[in-house]
Every structure is written in structure tokens, then in C-alpha cells.
């Protein structure tokens, strides 16, 4: 295909918000069909980077290639086409509060207008069952817990049958059991459906559990990337500090056994 | 000397920034208007969003519009009635109240009500969606926010405002009739004869055209303020206030100039 198996290729990406230089030359290649975790402290620019990948924000300099196609900086038909290959699960779920769960999940398909009502209902049922929310179609987002909202958001993303799914902090603010469930759901997407998955997180547990590649963003740059094992052995002081808590915690657990 | 330039800078630099921001907003609003108009070509496929908006604008505004219209009709008849009585011209109340309502009071009062009741709600709703990333979510689902959110509100405002104005004109004139009868002993028949004799189709039409433009202004300003809100939930309140103020100012200014133009 000539894409060298690279789904998303970010080159020298810079982004300013007024005087705030958030991204300072990000270089990142995300392999297709794998799960990549982007980790970093809060305010590091993880969400901003993720939004550039779907064209919700446009670079001040640098460029982004999706399967070797350059992401247009202005709204256009080509941008629409590229976006169709993506789905994104937002940090706060971003469900439409005026629509019920079923309508939220089917929203993209209804507005696309290609499938019939019955076919859409079928997809909605299927995706809700996949995230463990069978029969919750008629509930309103306001009545759901944070974990359920997140799962509805995942179902909504899956309904569009994307090639690449971006998760912005999918496990933040969830209880450990729910976080575990979501982690295994994401791992499933990669293993069974062969999707390319990008997860932004500061939950090192889930990064080590699901990611094939872990990248750390610090002061607007990718300062370290590698497999979970390599990442763990990194001698970069910033990385060491970032994962020290996780290591200590796991080390203690190891000793107890 | 150096100090002096700094002082000047401190005054002019923010002023220049404000002006630039203002012209940028105006430009963005004009573009948003063009986009909303272009999306109107798919109105029939989007009736599921347009009709509820129209219903909402009508239903939400009707109670307050009725109340305002009837009291303004009362007061207008009272104030002018007292003056007319001195010349024994009470029977002209019908013309004065109905023309006053049709030309100015109907459109402007309705616009004010709709800004407070609908415009503010539009900005608050869309701004909330912006800060909770719902607008971004729409985009990633390949849903154009202008088609999905702006076009229905735009169409609803442009069509419902004139309809509300007709209603307000009518209720106001009725209110005038009640006062004319109660205080100035003008029979209903004489009052309405006077209305039909003096109130022209042109008066009505100009009022309605004006109100349709008010609908354009209110919907575009409200949607634009909502879509450009960034930051946290705290920004929603600020955006709503700004949107209401800007809508008021735009409506007043437009109304003044168009009235002057039509008088020439
Ligand atoms: N739309 C925006 N306008 C202005 N500043 C922004 C915007 N989005 C993000 N920022 C700033 O960019 C920085 C990185 O934000 P973000 O990517 O959300 O961090 P995180 O890594 O926690 O996801 C923060 O300082 C934030 O204030
Ligand atoms: Mg974030």
C-alpha cells in the first residue's frame, strides 16, 4: 500500500495558543493495527496532539499524514473523507444531552443517511451489547454514571466502523474494575477487529497493559518512545520520575507474593 | 520620553486588539450566515431538526409575547388617548395604536423578547456543547455543526419572528381597543374602522421584513457566540451575556438605520 504500516505520521508539529507554545516539534509515527499510548502529565498537550490527528485543530507549523495523505488545514471534502476513517472517544464522553443513549450511538449513521432505520437500530443494539449496555437505548445521558457514559461514547465511536480510534483518557475517573473492563475492551478492538488504537492517558497501569508502543510527551515534545519493556527500562530521568510511582507500587506488590 | 510611549502603548495596543477582534468576529459572523444560508438547500432532509426549533421558539415566546403585547397596547392607548382627548380625536386611537405596533413596537419588542428568551438559550446551549467537546464530537462523526445546529435555529428565527410579530401587532391592537372603549368610550367598531382606514399593507410588510432581519441577526450572533466559546463551564455565562448585549446593540443600530432609509 506504500504506507509502510504507518497509520498516523506527525512531523515537526508546533501549536501555539496565543503565547502558550503547547506543542514544540512533535515527531511521532503510529503503526497501523497496533495500540499506541501517549502518556504525560496533565496540561502536557496530550489532548491537543490527539485533536490534531483528526483535524479538529490545525498545526501552526508542521504536518500530519494519515495513511500517507496529508491532513488539510482547512475544512474541505478531503478532510471529511479523512475524518471518516477516525472515531474519537472524548475525555468527558461528549454525549449530546438532548438525545437518549440509542440516539447518541446512532447519531453519526442517522445523519449520514445511508442505512435504513432498522439497520441503524441493529447496529446500535450490537454496539451497546459490545460495551455491556444492552437494552439501555432509551436512557438519557444525564441519568448515567461516568463509566456508563464513557461506554456509550465508545459504542458511538464503534458504530461508525472506523479504522482508527482515538481515546482521550478512557479510564480517568473510573473505578478500577470499570477501568479494567474498558482496557480489555480496547485491547479487544485491536486484537479482534484489527483497529489502530491511540490512547492518551496518565494511567500507567492501562498503558502498560494494552499498549504495543508507549510515547511520553513532555514540554511539547516526544521525549521517549518504545515498547512497554523498553519504556520501563528507560534511563531518561523524566520518564523515570513519571513511572517511579507505578514501579514502586508494582514492586511492592511483587515482594508481597 | 520612554515612559510616555509606554503609556500610549498601554492605551492603544489593547484598543487595537479589541478592534481587530471585533472585525474578526463580524467577518466570522458573515461567513457563518453564508454557510447557514447555503445549508438551507438541504432543509427538507433536516426537518426533524428545523420543525422542533420553530415549535420551541413559538411556544417559549408566546406567553411573554402575549403579556407584553397586551400591556403595551394598553399603555399606548392610554398615553395617546389622553392627548387626543384634548382635541376630541379619540376615534383616531385605532390608527395610532395599530400603526405604532406594526411599524416599530411590534418588531422591536418582539426582537427584545426573543433575544432574552431564545437568543440567550441558543448561546447557552451551544456554548455548553462547545466547552464539553460535543461540537468536536459532532465533527468527528462527520456531522457539520452549521448544518446540524446553526441552520435549523437560523431558519426557525427568520420564519418565527415575523409570525410572532403579526401576533404581537394583533394583540397590541386589541389591547388598545379595550382601553379605547373602557376609558375613552370609543366603540370597537369605530376603533377597527379607524385601523383599517389608516393602517396600510406597507406598514405591516416593512415591520415584517425588519423582523425577519432581526431573526437573522439574533440567530447568527447567538450561534456564533456559542460556537466560539472555549474554556470551562464558567465561560458559558459570559458568552451568553455577551451574546445578548451584542444582539441588542445590533438590532437597535440596524433598526435605526433602516427606519431612516425608509423615511427618505
Ligand atoms: N482551545 C484551547 N485554547 C487555548 N488553550 C488551550 C486550548 N486547548 C488546550 N489549551 C492549552 O494547552 C495546554 C495543553 O492542554 P491539553 O492538551 O488539554 O493537556 P492534557 O495533556 O492534559 O490533555 C494547556 O495549557 C491548555 O491550557
Ligand atoms: Mg486532556
What descriptive keywords fit this protein?
heterodimer, A: 257 residues, alpha/beta, six-stranded mixed beta sheet, 9 helices, 41% helix, globular, disordered C terminus, B: 264 residues, mainly alpha, 8 helices, binds adenosine-5'-diphosphate, binds magnesium ion
Question: How would you characterize the overall build of this protein?
Answer:
The complex is a heterodimer of chains A (257) and B (264). Chain A is built from 9 helices and 10 strands. Chain A has 257 residues and is of the alpha/beta class. Chain A has a 6-stranded mixed sheet, sandwiched between helices. Chain B contains 8 helices and no strands. In chain B, 42% of the residues are buried. In chain B, helix 1 packs across helix 5 and helix 3 packs across helix 6. Chain B is 88% helix and 0% strand. Chains A and B meet through strand 6 and helix 3 of A and helix 4 of B. Magnesium ion binds next to helix 1 of chain A. The site of magnesium ion has 5 residues of chain A, from helix 1.
Quick structural gist:
The complex is a heterodimer of chains A (257) and B (264). With 257 residues, chain A is α/β, with parallel strands linked by helices. Chain A has helices spanning 46-53, 77-83, 101-112, 117-130, 146-159, 176-193, 204-210, 228-233, 237-256, and strands at residues 6-17, 20-31, 35-39, 61-66, 69-70, 86-89, 164-168, 196-201, 213-218, 221-226.
Amino acid at each position: 500500500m506504500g504506507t509502510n504500516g504507518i497509520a498516523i505520521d506527525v512531523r515537526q508539529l508546533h501549536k501555539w495558543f496565543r503565547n502558550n507554545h503547547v506543542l514544540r516539534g512533535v515527531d511521532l509515527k503510529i503503526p497501523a493495527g497496533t495500540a499506541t499510548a501517549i502518556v504525560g502529565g496533565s496540561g502536557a498537550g496530550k489532548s491537543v496532539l490527539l485533536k490534531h490527528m483528526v483535524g479538529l485543530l490545525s498545526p501552526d507549523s508542521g504536518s500530519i499524514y494519515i495513511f500517507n495523505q496529508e491532513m488539510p488545514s482547512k475544512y474541505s471534502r478531503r478532510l471529511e473523507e479523512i475524518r471518516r476513517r477516525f472515531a474519537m472517544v472524548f475525555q468527558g464522553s461528549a454525549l449530546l444531552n438532548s438525545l437518549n443513549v440509542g440516539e447518541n450511538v446512532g447519531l453519526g449513521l442517522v445523519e449520514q443517511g445511508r442505512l435504513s432505520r432498522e439497520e441503524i437500530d441493529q447496529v446500535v443494539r450490537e454496539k451497546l451489547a459490545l460495551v455491556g449496555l444492552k437494552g439501555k437505548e432509551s436512557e438519557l445521558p444525564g441519568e448515567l454514571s461516568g463509566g456508563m457514559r464513557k461506554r456509550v461514547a465508545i459504542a458511538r465511536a464503534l458504530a461508525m466502523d472506523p479504522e482508527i480510534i482515538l481515546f482521550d483518557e478512557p479510564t480517568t475517573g473510573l473505578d478500577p474494575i470499570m477501568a479494567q473492563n474498558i482496557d480489555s475492551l480496547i485491547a479487544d478492538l485491536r486484537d479482534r477487529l484489527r483497529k489502530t488504537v491511540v490512547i492518551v492517558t496518565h494511567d500507567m497501569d492501562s498503558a502498560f497493559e494494552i499498549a504495543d508502543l508507549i510515547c511520553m510527551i513532555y514540554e511539547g515534545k516526544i521525549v521517549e518512545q518504545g515498547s512497554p519493556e523498553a519504556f520501563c527500562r528507560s534511563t531518561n530521568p523524566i520518564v523515570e520520575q513519571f513511572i517511579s510511582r507505578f514501579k514502586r507500587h508494582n514492586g511492592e506488590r511483587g515482594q508481597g507474593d | 520620553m520612554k515612559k510616555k510611549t509606554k503609556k500610549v502603548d498601554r492605551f492603544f495596543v489593547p484598543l487595537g486588539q479589541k478592534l481587530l477582534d471585533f472585525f474578526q468576529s463580524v467577518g466570522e459572523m458573515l461567513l457563518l450566515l453564508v454557510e447557514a444560508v447555503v445549508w438551507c438547500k438541504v432543509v427538507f432532509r433536516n426537518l426533524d431538526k428545523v420543525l422542533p426549533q420553530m415549535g420551541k421558539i413559538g411556544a417559549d415566546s408566546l406567553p411573554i409575547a402575549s403579556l407584553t403585547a397586551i400591556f403595551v397596547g394598553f399603555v399606548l392607548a392610554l398615553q395617546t388617548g389622553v392627548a387626543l382627548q384634548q382635541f376630541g380625536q379619540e376615534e383616531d386611537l385605532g390608527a395610532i395604536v395599530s400603526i405604532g405596533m406594526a411599524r416599530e413596537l411590534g418588531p422591536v419588542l418582539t426582537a427584545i423578547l426573543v433575544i432574552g428568551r431564545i437568543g440567550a438559550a441558543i448561546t447557552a446551549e451551544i456554548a455548553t456543547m462547545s466547552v464539553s467537546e460535543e461540537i468536536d464530537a459532532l465533527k468527528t462523526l462527520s456531522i457539520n455543526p452549521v448544518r446540524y445546529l446553526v441552520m435549523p435555529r437560523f431558519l426557525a428565527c427568520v420564519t418565527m419572528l415575523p409570525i410572532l410579530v403579526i401576533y404581537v401587532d394583533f394583540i397590541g391592537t386589541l389591547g388598545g381597543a379595550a382601553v379605547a372603549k373602557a376609558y375613552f368610550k370609543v366603540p370597537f367598531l369605530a376603533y377597527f374602522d379607524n385601523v383599517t382606514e389608516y393602517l396600510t399593507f406597507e406598514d405591516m410588510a416593512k415591520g415584517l421584513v425588519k423582523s425577519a432581519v432581526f431573526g437573522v441577526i439574533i440567530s447568527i450572533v447567538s450561534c456564533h457566540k456559542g460556537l466560539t466559546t472555549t474554556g470551562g463551564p464558567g465561560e458559558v455565562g459570559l458568552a451568553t451575556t455577551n451574546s445578548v448585549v451584542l444582539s441588542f446593540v445590533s438590532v437597535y443600530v440596524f433598526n435605526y438605520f433602516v427606519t431612516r432609509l425608509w423615511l427618505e
